[in-house]
């Protein structure tokens, strides 16, 4: 069961970076502008953010295994549509369906709570949660090889086959969910959350290309904030909310989710900044002149170390509590980016930085579900883990926007070659380090002990340690 859920997590995370190596070529392949081509990546992020909390609530109500099967089926359908596409619109549709699949990771974590003995739960949760980073990092070189040497449609053949294998594994190995939440599905809440998240995430992700002062950017951000405020008031007054905000406001849950934003920022920063540093030409005295494939391979140790650290993080959580594991992880990320400010002139420097970030993210991702599930009712595990996943996505979106601006405003040109300057790369690392330090502050204020529900998803890990 752990293997099946970890495999589906890897497949879902792979979808998020599937097109990343191909992005520079998409405008030529699809005969569209670079801004339009970027939608093939942006739509996946938006679909993942919107669908994850909604499918989490549906899983709590109607069965988590059933929802995992539905999501994997949608990934297969999306892969087929993208595989057959030769223009932008069907590719966007296919990529949106693939993005929905990221919801299998928080659902998988919640399934583990239902089917495993408590003694085995920590390590399994750490492993499945880590797949969010592992799948993307390990998938990058695979995508790079296919993009460089084969027809780009093969990417979606691979993704469709992997999703189909995952679907069969879940169908055969995962038992039917028996723990269900009472109530009905909150359609109004789902619509409000979708509109609010799309407004904010779209405004943040496209602000640099549209202009931060443009009416479109400001309008989207304003609408997103206003809708989410109204959505919050509605959720507090409905009997069966999509997300119980009173639970989400508990100090442990709130601070863990805020820390998740910073971890999502710091992790995504490595996938934004390091490839550009590696692939930039050496003529400017800044870049390292590596190919797309070599750059992807340099980032792969980050994903492998996340996988390797998941059992270590689980043991630390059992011994010292999930809060300690999260604190250690974010602190390691901060140290990694501080080192990056001064060491960015050799290929091995980037491998060291990526590995340090992966080391820290492995500890952080392993601990966050345990913190969340220790502070929410047993019937809200999937919805609460889904919200935590959205917070990571929000951090990644902010990183993409902020660091994109930093790297495109500080440029150096030698001849006809233009790349981000050394000071721009250093500023990006400084910002990433600051984000990690903010995460450390949030984590420090997470209570060591909290009042538990009679039917909590998990016993308090710190209580178990004590």
Automatic annotation (TrEMBL):
<dbReference type="Pfam" id="PF07690">
    <property type="entry name" value="MFS_1"/>
</dbReference>
<feature type="transmembrane region" description="Helical">
    <location>
        <begin position="293"/>
        <end position="314"/>
    </location>
</feature>
<keyword id="KW-0472">Membrane</keyword>
<keyword id="KW-1133">Transmembrane helix</keyword>
<feature type="transmembrane region" description="Helical">
    <location>
        <begin position="424"/>
        <end position="446"/>
    </location>
</feature>
<keyword id="KW-0813">Transport</keyword>
<feature type="transmembrane region" description="Helical">
    <location>
        <begin position="210"/>
        <end position="234"/>
    </location>
</feature>
<dbReference type="InterPro" id="IPR011701">
    <property type="entry name" value="MFS"/>
</dbReference>
<keyword id="KW-0812">Transmembrane</keyword>
<feature type="domain" description="Major facilitator superfamily (MFS) profile">
    <location>
        <begin position="1"/>
        <end position="451"/>
    </location>
</feature>
<dbReference type="InterPro" id="IPR036259">
    <property type="entry name" value="MFS_trans_sf"/>
</dbReference>
<feature type="transmembrane region" description="Helical">
    <location>
        <begin position="67"/>
        <end position="86"/>
    </location>
</feature>
<feature type="transmembrane region" description="Helical">
    <location>
        <begin position="254"/>
        <end position="273"/>
    </location>
</feature>
<feature type="transmembrane region" description="Helical">
    <location>
        <begin position="351"/>
        <end position="372"/>
    </location>
</feature>
<feature type="transmembrane region" description="Helical">
    <location>
        <begin position="152"/>
        <end position="173"/>
    </location>
</feature>
<protein>
    <submittedName>
        <fullName>MFS transporter</fullName>
    </submittedName>
</protein>
<feature type="transmembrane region" description="Helical">
    <location>
        <begin position="185"/>
        <end position="204"/>
    </location>
</feature>
<feature type="transmembrane region" description="Helical">
    <location>
        <begin position="393"/>
        <end position="412"/>
    </location>
</feature>
<feature type="transmembrane region" description="Helical">
    <location>
        <begin position="326"/>
        <end position="345"/>
    </location>
</feature>
<feature type="transmembrane region" description="Helical">
    <location>
        <begin position="37"/>
        <end position="55"/>
    </location>
</feature>
<feature type="transmembrane region" description="Helical">
    <location>
        <begin position="92"/>
        <end position="112"/>
    </location>
</feature>
<dbReference type="InterPro" id="IPR020846">
    <property type="entry name" value="MFS_dom"/>
</dbReference>
<feature type="transmembrane region" description="Helical">
    <location>
        <begin position="124"/>
        <end position="146"/>
    </location>
</feature>
């Amino acid at each position: 069961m752990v293997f099946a859920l970890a495999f589906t997590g890897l497949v879902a995370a792979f979808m998020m970076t599937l097109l990343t190596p191909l992005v520079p070529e998409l405008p030529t392949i699809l005969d569209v502008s670079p801004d339009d081509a970027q939608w093939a990546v942006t739509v996946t992020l938006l679909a993942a953010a919107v669908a994850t909390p909604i499918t989490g609530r549906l899983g709590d109500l109607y069965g988590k295994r059933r929802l995992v099967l539905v999501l994997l089926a949608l990934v297969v359908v999306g892969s087929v549509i993208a595989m057959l596409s030769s223009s932008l619109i069907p590719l966007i549709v296919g990529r949106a369906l693939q993005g929905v699949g990221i919801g299998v990771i928080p659902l998988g974590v919640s399934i583990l709570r239902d089917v495993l003995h408590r003694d085995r739960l920590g390590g399994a949760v750490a492993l499945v949660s880590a797949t969010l980073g592992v799948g993307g990092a390990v998938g990058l070189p695979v995508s790079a090889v296919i993009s460089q040497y084969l027809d780009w449609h093969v990417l979606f053949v691979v993704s469709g086959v992997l999703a189909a294998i995952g679907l069969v594994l879940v169908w055969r190995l995962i038992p039917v969910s028996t723990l269900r939440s009472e109530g009905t599905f909150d359609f109004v809440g789902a619509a409000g959350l979708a509109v609010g998240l799309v407004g904010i995430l779209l405004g943040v992700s496209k602000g640099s290309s549209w202009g931060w002062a443009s009416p479109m950017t400001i309008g989207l951000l304003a609408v997103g904030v206003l809708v989410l405020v109204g959505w919050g008031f509605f959720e507090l007054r409905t009997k069966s909310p999509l997300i119980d905000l009173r639970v989400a406001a508990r100090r442990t849950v709130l601070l863990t989710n805020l820390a998740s934003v910073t971890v999502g920022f710091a992790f995504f920063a490595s996938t934004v900044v390091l490839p550009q540093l590696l692939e930039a030409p050496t003529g400017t005295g800044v870049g390292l002149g590596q190919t797309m494939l070599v750059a992807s391979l340099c980032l792969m140790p980050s994903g492998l170390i996340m996988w390797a650290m998941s059992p270590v993080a689980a043991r630390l959580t059992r011994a010292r509590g999930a809060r300690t594991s999260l604190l250690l992880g974010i602190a390691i990320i901060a140290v990694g980016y501080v080192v990056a400010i001064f060491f960015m002139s050799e290929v091995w420097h980037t491998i060291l930085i990526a590995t340090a970030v992966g080391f820290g993210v492995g500890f952080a991702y392993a601990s966050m579900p345990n913190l969340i599930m220790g502070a929410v009712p047993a019937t809200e595990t999937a919805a609460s883990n889904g919200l935590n996943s959205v917070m990571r996505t929000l951090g990644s979106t902010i990183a993409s926007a902020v660091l994109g601006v930093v790297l495109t405003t500080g440029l150096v040109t030698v001849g006809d070659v233009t790349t981000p300057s050394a000071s721009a790369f250093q500023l990006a690392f400084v910002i990433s380090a600051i984000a990690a330090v903010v995460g450390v502050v949030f984590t420090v204020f997470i209570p060591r002990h909290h009042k538990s529900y009679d039917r909590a998803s998990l016993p308090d890990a710190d209580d178990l340690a004590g």
